[in-house]
Amino acid sequence: MEFKFFYHFGNFLLMLKGMFSRPENMKMYWKQFMQQCVDIGVGSFGIVFIISLFMGGVTTLQTAYQLVSPIIPKSTIAQVVRDTIILEFAPTLTSIVLAGVVGSKIASELGNMRISEQIDALEIMGINTKGYLIAPKILAAVLMIPVLVAIAGFLGIWGGKEAGELSGVLSGEEFMQGLRQEFKAYNVFFAMAKSYTFGFIIASVSAYYGYNVTGGALEIGKASTTAVVVSCVLVLFMDYALTAILL
Amino acid sequence: MIELKDIRKSFGDKEILKGVSTTMEPGKVNLIIGASGSGKTVLMKCIVGLMGVDGGKVLYDNQDFTSMDDKEKKGIRQEIGMLFQGSALFDSMTVEQNVMFPLEMFGTGTHKEKKARVDECLERVQLKEAAKKYPAEISGGMKKRVGIARAIVLNPKYLFCDEPNSGLDPQTSLLIDKLITELTKEYNITTVINTHDMNTVMESGDHIVYMYQGQKQWEGSNKDIVFSKDQKLNDFIFASEFLREAKEMRQLEMFKDGKWRDQLKKEQDGK
């Protein structure tokens, strides 16, 4: 497969530039933005709920498994779980899952609109399709994905507490004590900074691949897969870059 | 009125449009006909601005559309209605919402007035009963009619139809043709239809441009087309054995007044 990085990067920047124009009707753009917020936020809540609970539970059990020294207090397990979830699992793992859920939805929706000439129909009406279709999706993702990440953080920690109690690894009191040990608010800022970045990557990259689909139904599937793969790789790359810069 | 002046378009080394010029007048059904690959779809996309041209001009009422910036083009585009080959209805909206969409985006007036206009357009295409249905729940012919209703809801000056009869049965095709012709005359719209449906050519073609290998091969009306001596056009029009025989069997006068179909039917019924 030919890897045309500069071609895609240039087109991607042109797509972003094309989004900025005066909306034809602000009310319709707002309606579209709210619809995307519901689709991305509410639509992904179920999967985020499930993975967060299990993510927290598994982290607690694995941390307890590795901390076998009798001189380390059990509350340390909760401290490790808290920081692992806030720093890495909630923003990154949730975003990877959302790249699959939200990214493929955005790419296939726009791809289908392109193939079935719905985008052309909007263009003919005199609507800036990049502004009307892509900008609300990016803005909604940048707003809702950090919210989902925050929810994932809370649920992950709660899942960790429940798993610790259910398995008898540590009591609820010990877990709550560990949660309060050496808490750094900066870690939450770091997690939010990552989730804003990941939200932008997931929505914009998926929109790029969906918007530029050519061909037929097969190409929509390909674009959707490519969008998810590229989003995941960029999320992981930016995860490393932000960690190196901010921590 | 739409004027095309020496329109040229290439994809890579391949020249698709080789200098097409013509004039499309208001109140007339203007047809672009030709075999697949003759450049008629590219020509229509160039006229409406979905594709840029490499050379030449597209003039909408003497305004050069090709040299306009995006903001100026928006002004012209709001006067354009287009019916797409696949109807291009918005899947997530009902029939009523599809027709309402251009009004909500660009229309002025109260919601009640907009609703009345939508009802009027749906009434015009005889689809009021399907207003609450989604595109997935209606037939191909109904989708086309919704597409027409959406195209005319803002009272366009120009109406473009890309193969309006493709995938439709002959009766529905005739209904769509009739509807487009009536709307064209009623509102004095400049209508441009891209087709290779011979019924449309014979019934509606006030002005016909025959495209052959990216060039305008012939131009005229449905009254002239069967009398044309152009061999390429004749090969295209009378491609089927049935029509060729029909042409040979009958005096050309029968084609002139459109009675050939009735006559054929009579003879077939008689057999």
From TrEMBL, chain A:
Keyword vocabulary terms for this entry: Membrane, Transmembrane, Transmembrane helix
Source superkingdom: Bacteria
A single GO cellular-component term on record: ATP-binding cassette (ABC) transporter complex
Keyword match Hydrolase: no
Keyword Transmembrane helix attached: yes
Membrane-spanning intervals of the chain: 6-21, 42-65, 85-104, 138-158, 188-211, 223-246
Name of one Pfam family that matches: MlaE
One Gene Ontology term of the molecular function aspect: phospholipid transporter activity
UniProt xrefs under PANTHER family: ABC TRANSPORTER PERMEASE PROTEIN-RELATED, PROTEIN TRIGALACTOSYLDIACYLGLYCEROL 1, CHLOROPLASTIC
Name of the featured protein: Phospholipid/cholesterol/gamma-HCH transport system permease protein
Source species: Chitinophaga polysaccharea
TrEMBL record, chain B:
Coiled coil spans: none
PROSITE patterns: ABC_TRANSPORTER_1, ABC_TRANSPORTER_2
UniProt entry tagged with the keyword Transport: yes
Cited InterPro entries: AAA+_ATPase (IPR003593), ABC_transporter-like_ATP-bd (IPR003439), ABC_transporter-like_CS (IPR017871), P-loop_NTPase (IPR027417)
GO terms, molecular function: ATP binding; ATP hydrolysis activity
Swiss-Prot/TrEMBL keywords: ATP-binding, Nucleotide-binding, Transport
SUPFAM superfamilies: P-loop containing nucleoside triphosphate hydrolases
Pfam families: ABC_tran (PF00005)
Domain ABC transporter: start-end pairs: 2-238
Protein name as catalogued: Phospholipid/cholesterol/gamma-HCH transport system ATP-binding protein
Source lineage: Bacteria, Pseudomonadati, Bacteroidota, Chitinophagia, Chitinophagales
